[in-house]
Amino acid sequence: MKLAVFDFDSTLMDGETIDFLAEPLGLKERVASITKEAMEGKLDFFEALTTRVALLKGLKKAQVEEICRNLPIMRGAEETILALKKRGYRVVCFSGGFRSATSPICRDLGIDADFSNILHDVDGILSGKVGGDMMFDYSKGDMLLRLQNLLGVSKDDTVAIGDGANDLSMFKYASTKIAFCAKPILKEASTDTIDRKDLREVLDIVK
């Protein structure tokens, strides 16, 4: 068995979910600036995540779900996932974002499992709090190691694809580390880089 792990925001999906969620509140630019610094490794991921989610307080859960149903999928995502599965890969998604976005899109793409965070709500209104699987800068690496042990997959049979600083921890446990339209901090840790927004280029690297 082989394992391919994709980041979600700006990798499987063309953009950052939290930036889209902040837009109806008039906070997109403020949230996006924090997102950018976190992805560049300039801010602690947990602090950046909780700070941004706090700004979403008051947003309706139904509005969150509507926005997440209409997020733009990265070019080539569907074809790439299908091809990897035909090559014997289990494909999973790790996201520091939110299950409201990852679960429906990963289901549509045929991804085997998604691990992300959950926006807390009270009576259908976001409380500004968040919890879940991917809260810290080490979370992706921690989860990848657990999956490898569970599935019996080696580092040599593991591929990791991402774009930001919080993907560094999963790169540690993958022999093939693909920086996809990535921040410099991740490119420096990668074995391969893709600078065009087309996930099908992954198939030229992963055999």
Please provide a written account of the structure.
By secondary structure, the protein is of the alpha/beta class. The protein has one domain (2-204): Rossmann fold, CATH 3.40.50.1000. Helices cover 38% and strands 23% of the residues. The chain contains 9 helices and 7 strands; from the N terminus they run E-H-H-H-H-H-E-H-E-E-H-E-H-E-H-E. The protein has a 7-stranded mixed beta sheet, sandwiched between helices. Helix 8 (168-171) links the parallel strand 5 (158-162) and strand 6 (176-180). It is globular, with a radius of gyration of 16 Å. The mean pLDDT is 97.
Q: From the alpha carbons, calculate the radius of gyration and give it in angstroms.
A: 16 Å
Low-confidence stretches: none
- CATH fold-level topology: Rossmann fold
Globally, the shape reads globular
Figure out the total of helices: 9
The SS-based structural class is alpha/beta
Quick overview:
The chain is of the alpha/beta class and 207 residues long.
Topology, element by element:
Blueprint: E1 2-7, H1 17-22, H2 28-39, H3 45-54, H4 61-69, H5 77-86, E2 89-98, H6 99-109, E3 113-122, E4 125-132, H7 139-151, E5 158-162, H8 168-171, E6 176-180, H9 184-187, E7 192-194
Parallel strand pairs: 1-2, 1-5, 2-3, 5-6, 6-7
Antiparallel strand pairs: 3-4
Helix pairs in contact: 2-3, 4-6
List keywords for this structure.
38% helix; alpha/beta; Rossmann fold; globular; 7-stranded mixed beta sheet; 7 strands; single chain; 23% strand; 207 residues
